[in-house]
């Protein structure tokens, strides 16, 4: 029984990862890789945040995060603002150009996932949300 469930879990994770890769490829024509997209979406959702917050929230390496932020800075998509309280700390947020790029990218992403979600029956939509909540709990428990 445990072995059979292990195969089901593995197959489900593989399918989910394949779906994420599919989404990444669909968004890739916007010339950002998966982690760049994740960072753009994190800034989109949070507004202004520190590099450390990005690293923690997305579980990314400090050096890798720094390289991505430098690229986004060089393309005038984000700006750095020094903290008033702690001069060692910088916050990043979108420039007007970055806000337009992020909005377009997020809308495309949202349309893609909602199109797929809306193809599911009401029962499957509920199961899908429940499954995502369980995955989120597992991920949160791993962080703690």
From TrEMBL:
SMART domains: HTH_MARR (SM00347). The keyword tRNA-binding does not apply. Residues 1-137 form the HTH marR-type domain. Coiled coil: none annotated. GO terms for molecular function: DNA binding; DNA-binding transcription factor activity. Transmembrane segments: none annotated. Pfam families: MarR. Keywords: DNA-binding, Transcription, Transcription regulation. This is HTH marR-type domain-containing protein. It comes from Vagococcus fessus.
